[in-house]
Please model this.
Amino acid sequence: MRKELLLVVVVVLAGCTGSISDLNPVSQDDTGDGQIGQEDGYAHDDPVSVTTEDGLNESERAAVLARTKARVEKLRDREFNGSVAVEVISRDEYRNQSRGPGGPGSDDPWNDQVWEALLLIGEDRGTGEAFGETYNTSVQGYYSPASNNITIVSDSPTPTIDRATLAHELVHALQDQYGNLQNSSHTQDRQLAQQSVTEGEANYIQYTYENRCQRTWDCIERPARDSGGESSGGQPSDGVFVTIYQPYATGPLLIDEQYGTDGWDGVADLYERPPNSTEQVIHPDTYPDEEPVNVTVPDRSNAEWSRFDHDPVADTAGEASIYAMLYANDAVDTEQWYRYRSAPSAGWGGDTIVPYKNGSGGYGYVWALEWDTEQDAREFEQAYRSILADRASERPDENVYRLPESNKFGDAFRVTRSGTRVRIVNGPTVEALDTIHG
Model:
């Protein structure tokens, strides 16, 4: 399991990514403290007197927090049953501290191979460095269940609270108070799928909150960005960002579908029976019936190569990560990247990535992918081969590609397809391919 993807309360904001209906829940009486829509002396429609240009003092911050909690309660039709604290730090402070998402991480050669297989993080850096770079520019805030604390990362010249980020993180605090933040998945695909519920609900409420600010609510101004500094927010040109943004982008549409069918009871069902693949999130009509295929890779390595002593020994990339790989490597042409849909990534049935190592510091992997139809498998194979063909310096065989050492993925690759199964073998040399997977 990748620790980099366990950050279930990280906010990576890039706007609404689909058509989502406005919430109109039936709320309980909100005329007094302890009722939905009433928090710490503020009702959801009460005005607050604050000045945002010079930041927020302690009393102003308390007022904004109380009213925002009341509004989140009103939208979610659920009452906070515990306290939540808020702090604001600058982006420089965030970069310099290690307790938040994107802080320094230890080397993880097993995980490095998984992300190298996706052609998203090359041999020029590790996953810890790559994730740190992405989070350092894209995180807007996060919630810590251990301390019940929300940290807002401010990009404005005068650090202040972004109302959208605060609303999003308060949803996470609410989820925590009702026991909905657990994530026990062991593969990248299922981890992203389960995050699609927690982050999908948070973005769903956040979108509705902003919609109300535009239409009916009196809201504090959102802080201006510092045009002279490094702008925040993930970029679709960053394949790591595209991968980890999937729960925020497509999760709200799954929430919307469940809410539209069964209200908040339907959303609660997602926590009881979370999606088992990102395919079920990207294509909500496949939830919950279309289960992924269990793909296995027989160990055909010789004595020189071995699998990692790692639990689990293999990983599953899933449709979202495959899409991110194809998009980041210019193998799909779509302006609506946030939909995570393309012909070469659709029709995913299941996959497994098995990293290998040898005693000389060499690494490789076997990636087997199962597709719904031969046409689906063929479309993926052609798109993947196009990536390698554009970079290969040698073609020793029609199925073998040798990328130059100057390339960050400068290894040998063997790509084969049999019916609905595509198999990719990677090693440091052409000769190593047969010794890793004969």
User: Anything to note?
Assistant: The CA atoms of residues 300 and 437 lie 5 Å apart. The chain has a mean pLDDT of 88. Residues 305-436 form one domain. The chain has two domains: 3-286, 305-436.
